[in-house]
Amino acid sequence: MAVLETIAQVPGGLRNAEIHRRMRIPKSTCSYILSRLEQKGYLTKNDATGRYRVGLTPVALAHNALREIGVRTIAEPALYKLATATGLSAGIGILERGYVLIIDRVEGNDFVRDVVESAEAIAPARHRPTRHYPVREDRAIGRELPAHTTAVGKVLMAWLPEPALLKLLEQRGLPRRTRKTITSKARLVQELESVRELGYAIADGEYSSGLRSIATPIRNAAGFVSAGVSLNGPITDVAWDDPAELVELVKSAAREISRRAQFLREAPSAID
């Protein structure tokens, strides 16, 4: 697993010699591990360059892991409804090892239209005003994001028990992503208190400049926050002209997801 993680961090992969030096293990041991991982499909080797890259077997494992998170299938109708109504992108996130893990995402109509137009008319697209979207890697399902930089991360942290929150902050810290990223523990704790009072969180260019997101909590049958649903897109999008309406739409989606999953024993308004 350490070998896989080491290789995954380097675009284009690594050679045997580079891996054994980085990991400080004997070259022969490294060769044996690499050959076994290659046989099982965890790694692939480029014979021309000698570089090993992560194979497709982990993708199959990841698919099985995501399948076990039942909320994904139940959440999709609400996500499509959100994306269609707003033109923004809708997603579901959970807290995993101190990071926000994106487990499902539906792109908004505006994003899809812009991608298609850019692909069909590259030259005209260069002269059109371009909107800021997250790069593909940051939009991918399974992507881990620093919790304090995203709206869904703030929602998930806001309802953590205090010891768990303090442990998370100690382990992960508050690394800066943009000039708007919250890097003060005191300021973050204050904002999380506000999130609990309001029932939603906003991240304004804190993970990526020019992007904004709103998130609300999804609760399980016991009333605990188990996931978060979010809307996100370029700050310049006209959808942000009425943030109050967006908040209500996201809250409504969270209630719908919770009902479908039979997370709530109480009336739908309990999620507020």
CATH superfamily of the largest domain: GAF domain
| Strand/helix succession | HHHEEHHEEHHHEHHHEEEH
Count of helices?
Answer: 12
Q: How far is the first residue's CA from the last residue's CA?
A: 41 Å
Q: What fold name stands as the CATH topology of the largest domain? A: Beta-Lactamase
Widest β-sheet, arrangement of strands:
5-4-3-8-7-6
Number of strands: 8
Strand percent estimate: 15-25%
What number of structural domains do the residues give? 2
| Mean pLDDT figure | 85
What is the CATH class of the largest domain?
A: Alpha Beta
Query: Regions with pLDDT < 50 over 5+ consecutive residues?
Result: 263-272
Q: Which structural class fits the helix and strand makeup?
A: alpha+beta
Helix content: 40-55%
- CATH architecture of the largest domain, by name, is 2-Layer Sandwich
- The radius of gyration over CA amounts to 21 Å
What does this structure look like?
The protein is 46% helix and 18% strand. β3 (89-96) and β4 (99-106) form a beta hairpin. The relative contact order is 0.12. It has two domains: 2-60, Winged helix-like DNA-binding domain superfamily/Winged helix DNA-binding domain (Arc Repressor Mutant, subunit A); 69-271, Beta-Lactamase (2-Layer Sandwich). The protein is globular. The chain has helices at residues 2-8, 16-23, 27-39, 57-67, 71-86, 109-120, 122-125, 136-139, 151-158, 162-172, 185-198, 243-260, and strands at residues 43-45, 52-54, 89-96, 99-106, 144-146, 201-204, 211-219, 225-234. It has 272 residues and is an alpha+beta fold. Mean pLDDT is 85; it is low at 263-272. α5 (71-86) packs antiparallel against α12.
